[in-house]
Design goal:
Blueprint lengths: L1 E4 L4 H5 L6 E10 L2 H12 L12 E3 L4 E5 L2 E6 L12 H8 L3 E4 L5 H10 L2 E4 L5 H5 L2 E8 L9 E16 L6 H10 L1
Parallel strand pairs: 1-2, 2-3, 3-6, 6-7
Antiparallel strand pairs: 2-9, 4-5, 7-9, 8-9
Helix pairs in contact: 2-3, 3-4
């Protein structure tokens, strides 16, 4: 199994092959619908977004967090259904240079096209494995937009051997989900 780490460059991303299993080390952020809407709204209006979004590994996750001393710890961190962000993700990828998205269920053809254009991959995480995945998150390094609520805030995380994750949509437009759809039509 291949181990990848942040920061991820375009060359790193384009070397990943459809179906390949990876573990991730490094910085990532969480983001669901409201985080996407807030980030895009700010950027469109000329405002600043947290620098951690730029070139990020974006985990579609609404984690369950617990206060721990002065900070936070992750109790559970399962992937959320990524297709919920289909209408927002192409702009997120192109505007902020997102390098990898972690989620479940795949994303649209439009997202796949944005990934191919900029060098981004979709890494599928196993649904129902929230506690196991949380074990791969070693530190919460911060939080933005807490006013959105725990699940919708942007959590900044440090991961170690996070996964396993499957390259389910690669940077050349390949998609395991599309391959299944095509095979079912035959």
């Amino acid at each position: 199994m291949k181990v990848i780490g942040s920061p991820l460059g375009e060359r790193d991303i384009r070397s990943l092959k459809l179906g390949e299993q990876v573990l991730f080390n490094g910085d990532m952020i969480t983001g669901r619908d409201e985080m996407h809407i807030r980030a895009l709204s700010l950027a469109r209006g000329g405002g600043d977004v947290p620098r951690e979004i730029l070139g990020s590994v974006l985990f579609h996750c609404g984690p369950i967090m617990r206060r721990s001393g002065e900070g936070w710890e992750v109790v559970a961190a399962g992937p959320t259904t990524s297709s919920r962000m289909d209408s927002l993700e192409p702009e997120m990828i192109s505007r902020f240079g997102i390098r990898a998205i972690i989620g479940k269920g795949g994303m649209s053809r439009e997202v796949s096209e944005a990934m191919a254009a900029t060098g981004c991959v979709y890494l599928a995480a196993t649904g129902g494995a929230a506690v196991s995945l949380a074990e791969g998150i070693k530190k919460v390094t911060g939080v933005e937009w807490e006013d959105l609520g725990m699940a919708e805030a942007m959590w900044k995380l440090k991961a170690e051997r996070f996964g396993p994750l499957t390259v389910a949509m690669d940077s050349s437009g390949g998609s395991l989900y599309e391959n299944v759809r095509l095979s079912l039509r035959r």
